[in-house]
Amino acid sequence: MKKPEAYRGEGPYAFVSYAHEDASRVFEEIHRINSMGFHAYYDEGIHPGHVWRDELASAIDNSGLLVFFITPRSINRQDCLRELNYALDVNKPLLAVYLEDTELPGGVRLSINDRQAIMAFEMSGEEYATRLNETLAEFLEQDSGNEPTIPERTSTSVLTNTELTTISSERDRSSMNTSGKCELSCGSDG
């Protein structure tokens, strides 16, 4: 898989956090994001001669959201955890995409358990692409050029952070399953 170009423009983009051990799979995902009409920045966008931590912090600050590709490797990489923690510290929207079934360590679970995730490893390619496209379009506030059909909300639909916060505050019914993944109990009216 050819390494994708990291976005360096002024328009909206997603900051991609991943473990380098997962590069070939994540590069496929960055190509997917680009093919949907969105831009993605990842650590290959660091300018030569610059302090990489400053570059990454600036890239997170200027992004529309952080996409954290979750695998057993990424949740144990200090660089990924620093990017995640920084994004949360500056209130950057977060999209967690589970590429593999992954048990979250307590600290990561504590940090992201109030956000709905995309469980890519459990979905068909088409279902995953639709949910990813809808979420990126919302947070990057741009039209991808694709017009996905927005499914009726059910207990398995991906909820935005705003919707999740509203439902949680109105119903206060969030719970954590034994695998450490956030689930929300919603009726068909949710």
Distance between the termini: 40 Å
Return the CATH topology: Rossmann fold
Q: What top-tier CATH class fits best? A: Alpha Beta
Range of strand content: 5-15%
Helices and strands, in N-to-C order? Answer: EHEHEHEHEHHEE
The major sheet is characterized as: 5 strands, parallel
What does this entry look like structurally?
With 190 residues, the protein is of the alpha/beta class. The chain has a single domain (14-151), classed as Rossmann fold (3-Layer(aba) Sandwich), CATH 3.40.50.10140. The protein has 6 helices and 7 strands; from the N terminus they run E-H-E-H-E-H-E-H-E-H-H-E-E. The chain has helices at 23-35, 52-62, 78-89, 106-112, 125-140, 161-171; strands at 14-17, 40-41, 65-70, 94-98, 117-118, 174-176, 182-184. The strands form 2 sheets. It has a 5-stranded parallel beta sheet with strand order 2-1-3-4-5, sandwiched between helices. Strands 6-7 form a two-stranded antiparallel sheet. The chain is globular and about 40 Å long. It starts with 13 loop residues before the first strand and ends in a 6-residue tail after the last strand.
Give the secondary structure arrangement, pairings included.
Elements: E1 14-17, H1 23-35, E2 40-41, H2 52-62, E3 65-70, H3 78-89, E4 94-98, H4 106-112, E5 117-118, H5 125-140, H6 161-171, E6 174-176, E7 182-184
